[in-house]
């Protein structure tokens, strides 16, 4: 990280790119000397922020699909032709509007 960017962040400011300009927050807390410092080092700070962004983009984690253990009752062998769960002691008739977790799920053979 550049000296200028390190210095302004160490003072408690968040510095981000806003198009081709800098966005500093909280802006209202900047002192006149800090504003002059930012103006004097603007190009250096912008370059550093662009490099950080490019580095972060190159190292972004890929999306990982996590296997879900929820299933629709209609995908289970325990559901009989009447739409009732044969494995359930109450033989309930599930509303198959959303997947659910079931300890006795038995997928349909393909």
In summary, what is this structure?
The protein has 110 residues and is an alpha+beta fold.
Q: Whole-number radius of gyration?
A: 29 Å
How many beta strands in the DSSP annotation?
2
> H/E order of the elements?
HEEHH
Q: What's the pLDDT, averaged over the residues? A: 82
Q: In terms of structural class, how would the helical and strand content be classed?
A: alpha+beta
Alpha plus pi helix count: 3
Distance between the termini: 56 Å
The shape is rod-shaped
- Which percent range describes the beta-strand content? 5-15%
The number of distinct structural domains comes to: 2
Q: What is the share of helical residues?
A: 25-40%
Biggest sheet, spatial arrangement of strands: 1-2
Mind explaining what this structure looks like?
With 110 residues, the protein is α+β, with helices and mostly antiparallel strands. It folds into two domains: 3-58, no CATH class; 66-110, no CATH class. Helices cover 31% and strands 9% of the residues. The protein contains three helices and two strands; from the N terminus they run αββαα. A two-stranded antiparallel sheet has the order 1-2. The longest helix has 17 residues, at 42-58. The radius of gyration is 29 Å and the shape is rod-shaped. The protein starts with a helix and ends in a 52-residue tail after the last helix.
